Write the structure tokens for this entry.
Amino acid sequence: MRLNPLLQPFDTLPWDQIKPQDFQEALPIALNLAREELKEIEQCTEAPSFENTIEALAWSGQLLERISGALFNLNAAETNPEIQSIAQEIAPELSAFKNDLFLNKTLFQRVDAVFSHPPKHLSEEQTMLLEETHKSFVRQGAYLDPSSQEVLRKIDSELATSQLQFGQNLLADSQSFSRLLTQPEEVIGLDEDYLAQAKAQAEAQGKEGWLITLSYPSYVPFMKYAQNRTLREELYRAYALRGHAKNENNNDALVSAIAELRHRRAVLLGEQNHAEYTLKERMAQNLETVDGFLRDLLDKAKPAAAREFNQLTDRAAQDGIFDLQAWDISFYTELLKKEQIALDDESLKPYFSLTNALNGVFQITQQLFGLSYKKTAQVAVYHPEVEVYEVFDEKDVFVAYLYLDFFPRPGKRDGAWMTSYQSQFKKGTENQRPHVSIVCNFTRPTADKPALLSFNEVTTLFHEFGHALHGMLADTQYPSLSGTSVAWDFVELPSQWMENWCYHPEALQLWAKDYRTNAPLPQTQIDALQKAKQFMEGWATVRQISFGLLDLAWHGSDPSGKSIEGVEKGIFAQTQFTPEVPGTAMSTSFAHIFQGGYAAGYYSYKWAEVLDADAFEAFLEAGGLDKATAQRFQQHILSQGGTKKAALLYRKFRGHDPKPEALLRRAGLLDELAR
């Protein structure tokens, strides 16, 4: 009989041995094991203590977490109908298990007993674990009466399956669209590398011409460079219709259902709405603070955005376009950037090969944190394109495994993300090092050229690597407090801090070299990149704020009776400059909030920009790639996870609270406000 590889001892996941049915067999067994572990804690005859209750809970369910994490990561990066079916089947069971844990009266009584009389010997991290454990029980309904707990169970089960279905519908809808172009006039403006990719995609389907899809490397450059305005409109409408078309992948009802379920859940747990429930565990603390933060930033950015929109309008008018539309924005933004600061993605791409950019990340993190990276073929992967690196510190001590998965393919959802297959923790003499993965959708290499990245793809690589550093450099005792297990509006600090190095001259000189000649990126281009940091920044800021406000519109009040059209009109009327495009929607493809973990949390990108701008100024004040500053950043931010409150960690690193002026200064909005 074949042994299930998921049920045998393993360090790195044995991807080369795992079949979909292994998940189907292993997950119920891991669930039962986790239940037995909880039962043992519940039935302990000794008086409740930190060790036999709080720590015991922290160490329970490890196998279940690893196997379920592997399944859901596979469902995002390399899915198929069988994996999707298993995920749909197990999601409500995992939700029920979570409820079984937090609604267990005996377990809560034990936790509450330790919390009410905490031992004096606890370390700072142990105190945080105790507080977080008790809070988790309370926030998950431990104080509810039995009938309310049953309602909560039903809501959580429905949410688990609905959110999963939202993502599966979005993936199917995104991948169902393609447009075959056969006439040269249809592809004017698109460079030869892009056309080679599009031609290869067409040939893979047995077609002649250029195949355009809604995947990031296909859609975004098309909208930036294609001179055919009719085709830009067609693609824009297809992209903006994802999840909203009248087909089997329609997400309209799921948007309303998910928002209403979250609201009912929050009210059941004693809060006014989902945002108030969620924000109590964030740096921001409450809805009023977040709404005020976004609207204050909107007031500061909107005049700059209006001025920038007028520039786009004037430039389009030179081409005889007097009704600037949403599908024109990327095109004329790129054109203006090229004309005003002599910068365009295509001229940069030879200097931004994926190989060089990755080496750049490696060199920067080597200089700052002493890390080195060794590629290995000894670790199994779930797809042949995935690469694995062993990461070591400056004393050649093993730090982490790093998985890299860079290119789009069927079965992989859009976007980019960092995930973990194994959290870091310390137990006894063991220091379990993390297994971290970065998944992206970058431009593929062609037959005669390596993968050449747009600058936006470069910043995406650096962003996700910042998350990876947070995971890899973790140095905590408990897995639930390790790595990126921090307040949601703090988790983007390392990732957005890392993006700053994409613009820094000293960092660029390390790696930005022409893949053909090894010539460095010219100083004129580096200067242009510096200027590009502030180019259309008012517009970009208002766009991000609009997403944050849309998130709050769904989660900051009772969504019952709200229509997608009504919610979006109300928000975008405050932030939109181009005319509304009837029949399209944003919410039905807004995976961050309806599939991922950003519900009532999308504001955190801008919130963390305040943190990262202020944090990066510490490096600039020290001269740039400064190891002493990096050591403080590692000591107080990257290694600490959620062992202390986020605000305290930041103050320990910086010596003061984050200053919003740093963000406004970087964005050039201080000058705008002084106008």
Summary: Residues 177-240 form one domain. Residues 142 and 359 are 49 Å apart (CA to CA). DSSP finds 28 helices and nine strands in the chain. The mean pLDDT is 96.
